[in-house]
Each structure stands twice: as structure tokens, then as C-alpha cells.
Design brief:
- The protein is α/β, with parallel strands linked by helices and 221 residues long.
- It has helices at residues 2-17, 20-26, 28-64, 81-86, 104-111, 133-139, 168-180, 194-211; strands at residues 73-76, 91-96, 123-127, 146-152, 155-162.
Length: 221
């Protein structure tokens, strides 16, 4: 340890004695090359640190993003989620959590079908958040792994959330249709109390007949 300290002291003293200006003047080309390499390295480091998140995101999306043959389904990156929700065109936003999702393969199979969902002909924006899913979950109040949100005029019309899609396409289709085209509740017909009034008039007339006095029978010769 003491030897190392002595050597460091000797090196420090020797560096002090070096005339750096003279050395730079005598080795201009070498110094320029070193400086250029250092500057390039710094620029590349800054560029990589700035671009790395987006590159990483694209790589992950390339692995996990749905490759759908259904023209109705449009995969969306999570960075565009705000613009998707503010879109005033009628559409469905499907937000899917890929982690420990028991119905992930089932949902992807349903959305990858060549034909559109049986009775829903709206565009479906499909999002698989990779980064900061907890923030998206809190902001949009997601309570399940799979959430289909019906949007109209930039406002939420309704949603269907589930972890297990037991009924398959038919259940999903029925739930979405119930939100898009809700059935109008029929009003029960009100019964008019006419019969009761008729009964009352009949009973009153019969009672009045009973009260009438009997007349004597008249015989004509």
C-alpha cells in the first residue's frame, strides 16, 4: 500500500513538471484526433440515451403487438393513447394488460379474425401498454386485464371489462352492442279503471231496481 502511494506521488510530480503547452504544440495531430474521438463518443452517448427508450419501445411492440389481419382493428402505441381517447369518430378502445392475462390469446384470436365482430362494425383501437401501465390504469380507471371502451364524440359511452372471456366472441359482441345500441325499455301499459266504474253503475242500477215498488196487475175485459 505504501509503495502504491509513493508511485502515485511520483506520477503526480512528474505530471506537474510536464509542459502541456509544449506537448500540445509538438503533437498537434495526435491531440486533435484524441479530442475528435472524445467529442464523437460524447455525442453518441447523448444520442443513445435520448433515443434508447423509443428504440426499446419499438422492439417490445414488435414482439408483443397484435399482428391483426382484420382491417377493423388498428394497433396503437401507448404514446398515442391520449389522442385515441380524444378522437370524436365512433370507435372502440381495447386496452389489454399483457402481464398474467388469462384471456390474452383468446382476445388476440378474436381480434385477428378476417371478418369483423359479428354485429359491431366500428373501428377498434387495440393498445397493449408496455411502460407505465399502472399510470394508464389509474388515469382511465381500468379494473380488469381486458377493457373494451366504447367512445363516441370524444366521450365514453360505456365499457366492458373482464379477466376471463367465458362466452367468447358472442359475449363480447353482445356486451358491446348493448352499449352501442341500447335497447329501449318498453313501458308497461296502464290499465284504465273503466271496468270498475261499469260494475259500480250496474250494481247501482240493480240496487235501484230492487227498491222499486211492485205494481198491481191490471186485467182488461
Amino acid at each position: 500500500m505504501t509503495e502504491l502511494k509513493e508511485r502515485l506521488k511520483q506520477l503526480f510530480h512528474s505530471l506537474k513538471k510536464v509542459n502541456w503547452l509544449d506537448m500540445i504544440k509538438t503533437n498537434k495531430h495526435f491531440v486533435i484526433i484524441i479530442c475528435s474521438v472524445t467529442i464523437v463518443f460524447l455525442i453518441m452517448s447523448v444520442f443513445v440515451s435520448a433515443v434508447r427508450p423509443s428504440i426499446r419501445e419499438k422492439q417490445l411492440h414488435a414482439i408483443s403487438e397484435l399482428k391483426s389481419n382484420n382491417k377493423q382493428v388498428k394497433p396503437i402505441q401507448e404514446t398515442d393513447i391520449s389522442s385515441v381517447f380524444s378522437d370524436k369518430e365512433p370507435h372502440i378502445v381495447a386496452v389489454i394488460d399483457t402481464k398474467q392475462n388469462p384471456s390474452l390469446n383468446q382476445v388476440e384470436t378474436l381480434l385477428d379474425k378476417h371478418e369483423p365482430l359479428e354485429t359491431v362494425n366500428w373501428k377498434i383501437d387495440y393498445i397493449q401498454p408496455i411502460y407505465n401501465f399502472s399510470d394508464i390504469e389509474t388515469k382511465y380507471k381500468l379494473t380488469a386485464k381486458n377493457t373494451f371502451i366504447v367512445m363516441e364524440n370524444g366521450k365514453e359511452k360505456g365499457r366492458y371489462s373482464f379477466n376471463d372471456l367465458k362466452g367468447g366472441l358472442q359475449t363480447l359482441d353482445e356486451k358491446l352492442i348493448a352499449i352501442i345500441q341500447p335497447s329501449i325499455a318498453r313501458k308497461e301499459p296502464k290499465r284504465i279503471k273503466v271496468a270498475k266504474k261499469i260494475d259500480e253503475t250496474l250494481s247501482s242500477s240493480s240496487s235501484s231496481d230492487k227498491k222499486k215498488k211492485k205494481t198491481k196487475e191490471i186485467i182488461f175485459e
